[in-house]
Amino acid sequence: MSLPPGRGPIPVAGIAPDVDPELAKAAAELNSRVQYLLSPGSHDGPRIYRATGVDDSGNVPPDAEMPQRMPNLDADPLFHTVSVIDGFASDPGALFRSAEAVAGIQEPVIDSAYQKLVTGYFTWQNETYGGTPGRNRPVGSVPHAKYNEECTARGDWAEMKEGWFGPARTNAYLYERDFINYQVYTENLGYIIAENIVRYRAIFQQARADITALMNALTKIFAEHDWYGRGGGLTIDFASVVVSGIATAVTTVLTGGGGAVVAAVTLVDVVGEAIKTAKAEPGNTITVLLQDREYLRDTVKQYLDAVTKVEREAAEAISRLAEALPAKVDEMRVHRDHPTDRGATTQSGRSLPHYRDYF
Residue 15 domain-assigned? Predict the structure, then answer.
């Protein structure tokens, strides 16, 4: 991206390059252009010559936006010089607040929590956490559980009971059945939270990408503005509707058939699912046009509308995640309930099944 003559990038304090490198780069380049355009007295580049009074006909001349210093207008007492984005001189930080709002997500912290949540036992076959390598594992189906049993424990316990007869065998089976169901549901509770973490990170990731694209587009228009007012602009291939769609997008936290967790692939999948949903809904678009208006200040207003919309959509999507999670967790806890005693009608999900209740 081209920078103003003789100027370098100016970092935005609220966006750290080590945390959000692409967003920080786009913000620093845009900030350099903004500071340059706000100070026409320090260079011979773009400026507006604004009338200080009326002309000979009694009319106030319109703003004259120029690509460079005009000596004849400098000498004309009817005009004084202001910035081409004069309306934002008192608060240039407004151009970066939406970017700051979606910045600062610590990916390593989220990854660490995610990995812990998706490390199961009965639902994740892994040599470190249990199971016999190379052995066919029985896969059990637990009602209402999205991530079903993939551990060898049920088969191992069945073999252990081969020599058992009578009530001991029956009661052991009942205990094992309830215990395994309880554990599968317990692990699914963690997976529900992990799925939301995936969506949470994807919402911020997509919002950052959208705002980065908008900042780069505005910087490019600043650098290549058509001073003759013939219009044009840049079409950006994204839609803030995608951000809102991430909150309800279908996603999984485990690879097919058990094995290693691939968080990055999951993020791509959840964003892709949201894009498909956005395309399918009437009236939605996946492109945004940032127009090169006759006055650059009007382009800035359009940019602010766009980034504010992205920020608002991201905030609403996060709120939906927060509202939906407790209900989903409570639903899984209900399914986790188990008989407190053999033949009992009361259920308990507060404690795991204990063998003493079955013998």
Answer: no
